[in-house]
Predict the structure of Transposase, IS605 OrfB family.
Amino acid sequence: MARTVVVETPPLPRRLFRVFVELEGMYRNMVEQLTMYAVREGVASFTRLKALKYRELRSLYPQLPSHYAYTACQDASARAKSFLRLKKKELAEREHPEVNSVSIWLDDHLWRASGLTSIEVATHKGWIPLEVIPHKQYWKYINRGWRLASEARIKLDRKSRKLLVYLTFVKDAEEHRPRGFVPVDLNENNVTALIDGTAYLFETNIGRIVLGYYYRRRRVQEKYDKLYGVKSRIKRKILKKLNERRKKLDARWKIANIIVREASKRGYAIVMERLGRRPAERMIARMSDDQLRHRVFQAAFRGVQRAIEEKAREHGVPVVYVDPRNTSRLCPVHGSEIAYEDGSRVGRCTRGGEHWHRDAVAVWNLLLRALRGGGSSAPSPAGLSVDGSPVPLGSTAAHEPTRVPKALWARRKSLDATMNS
Ligand SMILES: [Zn+2]
């Protein structure tokens, strides 16, 4: 597993920054030449590119540490490959590749960490020490046993004379299969997770919050566009404030954290629906066909899913995706259709006659799909059979989820703490 984290240096003195401007110039030139050559000659492999061009690059910039010739070849090889791929699909916009944005690739000979918050970079003027400003996310990786990979990249921010340092953290992906699953179902106003046989329904009101935010934003825009024109500063300021408030209220990180922690504690994987081109279809089926609402909600669901993915990566929890079709329509026990009366979230199994809450059905079905596909070594919690043959669920808890109001979970870090209160 590898994750990239960006840290900044403080603004550098002019003379020092100039060294990196020069370095970037030489590096860019090498990458440009190499990429053109690679595409023209159809030689996109790094090893071949290096074999063919190394000497030439070294004589071009003898003052540069020799490994820049390597990393420039790697960089160019990646660019050429992606250009050729696009060209093959006839998606390339231009006849020739263009090297617009450049970050300088560094390998283990070109940089080293000299402390927790300082690195050194090899340049044509020797090794240059740099401070980096750590942030919360950076410390998280450090503290959770991630290692720094040998490659890094730096990018110049000319406006503020800073360097952006792209560090890669790696961790060995644990080989063992998950011991179980935590299926998670995303809905308009809740996130439901099935944890060891209990479906927890976390009320979120994401639908209401996101839509409310959207309308407020639009009202501000309309009002200030009329008063001060489209580009007014005051509008930007108010929108920025609104955005900050939205982020503060944004509970998805919290919910992601709670769920991922539960999975991590048990050595389970997380199961979610594979969101396709029209992800929220099932979830918005009952709403008006207002395109706008649709788009806003889609973005919201994706946001929650991404938050869970991000947290899962941080904790090394695997995520399994399953087919989302009919997850709330079929009885997890009998495989028969569940009949919902108009607008009701509770339905009745057409075969067994038992009652099911829509969101509980969804998570049980997600679990079944995960068990059938791939993770077959996992035990089957709550006696649900792995092959899907009908085994009645013993407890009624499965049929009706345990509701967790937002006021409860939003203030606590773990499910235990939430349930205890
Ligand atoms: Zn049934």
Remarks:
- The longest helix spans residues 14-41.
- Residues 331, 333-334, 336, 349, 351-352, 354 surround zinc ion (CB under 6 Å).
- The longest strand covers residues 147-157.
- The radius of gyration is 27 Å.
